[in-house]
């Protein structure tokens, strides 16, 4: 197995740094899937066990000036799967804000590592290189089936969220009232954030939000036709998990789609030209 990638363009370095920083705030450990065309950051499906799951997909050509990957098998298994502590990768590339180049490669030290090499500007003719060796675990091919793209849930409502900064500000206020928050929405563009306890009930409502278009010939999925457009679908979730998602967004998506599976889960889909990020939060029973 071999992997080597290099970024020279400073805007691409900043963009990649923001992606990794977002990932590190969403989860502690993640898996990295490397293919010829794409790089993925994955947290496998934990929703059934009460945890979140995530799928982030990057087109390597939009980030890297050089990209070389040779997987387990050139023909059938030409991919690489690694497990890494996301925060370690984030810390390693933080010093790349003013870098001349950023290199990432798979190396073999005492253990397998992702080695990050950052070339910093220098007043002398000698380059200044900062190197970080980040331990990784190689995931055997027998387990790759657990790291495939999650299926889009059969949701009841799909709508575009208001600006994330606005939602984050509201949720931060509501978290002081309760540990749980209910998201509700319908296909007419109504959306609500609500907390309810024995002592207090507080709700923030939005109306006339954009409804994502449905393309029957594309990859988009339509909400259930059996769900009345005016009826609110609801999901009660852990407010900390929602805040974790909202606090980690540094990739500046131009649209955030919220799909609600009534009394089951919330699925967030961040729309960006270079990145696709999906995030699932399960409901919490009353």
UniProtKB/TrEMBL annotation:
<dbReference type="InterPro" id="IPR016580">
    <property type="entry name" value="HUS1"/>
</dbReference>
<dbReference type="GO" id="GO:0044778">
    <property type="term" value="P:meiotic DNA integrity checkpoint signaling"/>
</dbReference>
<comment type="subunit">
    <text>Component of the toroidal 9-1-1 (RAD9-RAD1-HUS1) complex, composed of RAD9A, RAD1 and HUS1. The 9-1-1 complex associates with LIG1, POLB, FEN1, RAD17, HDAC1, RPA1 and RPA2. The 9-1-1 complex associates with the RAD17-RFC complex. HUS1 interacts with POLB, HDAC1, FEN1, PCNA and RAD9B. HUS1 does not interact with RAD17. Interacts with DNAJC7.</text>
</comment>
<dbReference type="Pfam" id="PF04005">
    <property type="entry name" value="Hus1"/>
</dbReference>
<comment type="function">
    <text>Component of the 9-1-1 cell-cycle checkpoint response complex that plays a major role in DNA repair. The 9-1-1 complex is recruited to DNA lesion upon damage by the RAD17-replication factor C (RFC) clamp loader complex. Acts then as a sliding clamp platform on DNA for several proteins involved in long-patch base excision repair (LP-BER).</text>
</comment>
<keyword id="KW-0227">DNA damage</keyword>
<dbReference type="GO" id="GO:0000724">
    <property type="term" value="P:double-strand break repair via homologous recombination"/>
</dbReference>
<dbReference type="GO" id="GO:0009314">
    <property type="term" value="P:response to radiation"/>
</dbReference>
<dbReference type="GO" id="GO:0005730">
    <property type="term" value="C:nucleolus"/>
</dbReference>
<keyword id="KW-0539">Nucleus</keyword>
<dbReference type="GO" id="GO:0005829">
    <property type="term" value="C:cytosol"/>
</dbReference>
<dbReference type="GO" id="GO:0031573">
    <property type="term" value="P:mitotic intra-S DNA damage checkpoint signaling"/>
</dbReference>
<protein>
    <recommendedName>
        <fullName>Checkpoint protein</fullName>
    </recommendedName>
</protein>
<dbReference type="InterPro" id="IPR007150">
    <property type="entry name" value="HUS1/Mec3"/>
</dbReference>
<dbReference type="InterPro" id="IPR046938">
    <property type="entry name" value="DNA_clamp_sf"/>
</dbReference>
<comment type="similarity">
    <text>Belongs to the HUS1 family.</text>
</comment>
<dbReference type="GO" id="GO:0035861">
    <property type="term" value="C:site of double-strand break"/>
</dbReference>
<dbReference type="GO" id="GO:0033314">
    <property type="term" value="P:mitotic DNA replication checkpoint signaling"/>
</dbReference>
<dbReference type="GO" id="GO:0030896">
    <property type="term" value="C:checkpoint clamp complex"/>
</dbReference>
<keyword id="KW-0963">Cytoplasm</keyword>
<dbReference type="GO" id="GO:0006289">
    <property type="term" value="P:nucleotide-excision repair"/>
</dbReference>
<dbReference type="GO" id="GO:0000723">
    <property type="term" value="P:telomere maintenance"/>
</dbReference>
């Amino acid at each position: 197995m071999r992997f080597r990638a290099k970024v020279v363009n400073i805007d691409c370095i900043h963009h990649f740094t923001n992606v990794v920083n977002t990932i590190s705030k969403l989860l502690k450990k993640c898996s990295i899937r490397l293919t010829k065309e794409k790089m993925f950051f994955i947290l496998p499906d934990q929703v059934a066990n009460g945890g979140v799951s995530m799928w982030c997909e990057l087109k390597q050509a939009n980030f890297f000036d050089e990209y070389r990957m040779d997987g387990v098998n050139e023909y059938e298994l030409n991919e690489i799967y690694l497990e890494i502590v996301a925060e370690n990768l984030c810390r390693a590339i933080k010093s790349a804000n003013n870098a001349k180049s950023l290199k990432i490669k798979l190396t073999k030290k005492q253990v397998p590592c992702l080695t990050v090499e950052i070339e910093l500007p220098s007043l002398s003719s000698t380059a200044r290189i900062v190197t970080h060796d980040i331990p990784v675990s190689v995931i055997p091919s027998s387990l790759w089936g657990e790291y495939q793209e999650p299926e889009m849930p059969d949701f009841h409502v799909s709508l575009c969220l208001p600006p994330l900064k606005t939602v984050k500000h509201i949720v931060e206020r509501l978290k002081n009232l309760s540990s749980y928050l209910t998201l509700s929405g319908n296909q007419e563009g109504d959306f609500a954030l609500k907390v309810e306890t024995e002592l207090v009930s507080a709700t923030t409502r939005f109306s006339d939000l954009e409804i994502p278009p449905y393309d029957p010939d594309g990859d988009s999925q339509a909400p259930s036709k059996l769900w009345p457009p005016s009826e609110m679908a609801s999901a009660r979730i852990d407010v900390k998990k929602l805040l974790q998602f909202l606090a980690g967004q540094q990739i500046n998506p131009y649209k955030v789609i919220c799909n609600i599976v009534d009394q089951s889960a919330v699925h967030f889909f961040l729309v960006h030209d270079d990145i696709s990020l999906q995030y699932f939060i399960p409901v919490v029973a009353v």
